[in-house]
User: Fold this.
Amino acid sequence: MGVVLIGSFMVVLDTSIVNVALPQIGKDFGAVSGVEWVVTAYLLSVGVVQPLTAWTADRLGKKRVFMWSLMAFTVGSLLSALAPDLATLTGFRILQGLGGGAMMPVGMAMIYELFEPHERGTALGIWGIAVMAAPALGPALGGFLSTAATWRLLFLVNVPIGIVGTFAGFRLLRDVGFREHRPFDGPGMALAGIGLTLLLLGLSEAERWGWASPAFLATVVVGTVLLTAFVLRALRVRHPLVDVRMFGVPVFSVTIAIVWLMTVAQFARLVFIPLQLETLRGLSALRVGLVLTPSALGIAITMPIGGRLADRIGARLPVTVGLAIFAASYWPLSRLRLDTPLWFIALVLFVGGLGAGLSMMPNTVTAMNSVPGRYVSQATAVRMLNRQVAGALGVAVLATILATRTGSNHPASAAAAPQALGAYNEVFLISLVLLALAFALGFLLPDREQTLALQEERRREGERDGSRPLPPPE
Assistant:
């Protein structure tokens, strides 16, 4: 589990650690525009590769896919650090993203299948610390490294960790879980890959292009049509790339809806708190990162607790309590003033982190327990991809609302601080409403009795198909 946690932490960290260094990267390469593709290319490749991971993991084995992905991510990190120009750096970031995008869902499936059904919440809770804490730690670490030394360290730091993880993985990881030699769905992969690329690209560039621009409409409309065709095809063919029939399981669909709402709210904190503090207060990236760090600490504290509670009493109680705390933290964020103390903002983010950590993992383990074992790889890929799309859509919509309220497509300046502050507060108020909806959905999740029944069903299923966890090597 430690090997998988290390790999997962590196992947998620790279989604936020580079953002604060974009000005330095552009300056070093003499790039006036296009530097944002260093981040966009990574996020696109992470999302596009995920539908393929379910088939490769079931066909080739999760250990093999995870190790190939870890090595690709490590090599991509080294090459990114050595990149001589912006175009080359962007290309190597794609390699990083392809490795990282495959590592995340496969790693999650491995953790799930390595433990008994009544232990999976606890195990995933520990693994989830990496997934949830890394985005909050990224800005602080990125700001420190890029300010104290060079942006190239942001990539080099992955290399020794990746090398150690590779050697440890070959020695320690075991290939367990569901295996199936189903044929490859080439047309489905083409529809999903192209559709996701266009949709994620359009959403990530929505604020810059404009929602009514031909570029935005073309990418989002064509991407949506292709993804719709993918779903319709998956319902007809015998061996689809991703079997969308798992959405017919009510509990699984409810968990997906909750993740959507939570992800939008989380990205609101990760994106718009830094924007507000930097543009309206003139704080450095490093100081902003330090303000965000307590939220990661809160998540790290309650993530394993939430997973353990899910194993024992079901998801309903920890998810609803956690979401209530998480939602409540957005009320003071929606009422911030220009003179609100930074320690108070950090405290509010810490409390919100406690709620997010408590609610996230019970929702995740319940989703996995609700579907048959043959869907584990596909379910993890769908959940990871769901977060990618929800984050991109949420940021695009909220950024547009912010730009509309401030009368500009760019972050507001200090001259328009009062109006801009009201716009930021409105973004956090919208996030509160979304979390309130997630709270209501939480009551549809299994209670203790229903959870024990799902655990027993998964245990018997593992005994029948031979995919139950193996004893550790002597």
Remarks:
- Residues 409-414, 467-474 have pLDDT under 50 and may be disordered.
- The chain has one domain: 2-184+241-464.
- The CA atoms of residues 360 and 447 lie 16 Å apart.
- DSSP finds 19 helices and no strands in the chain.
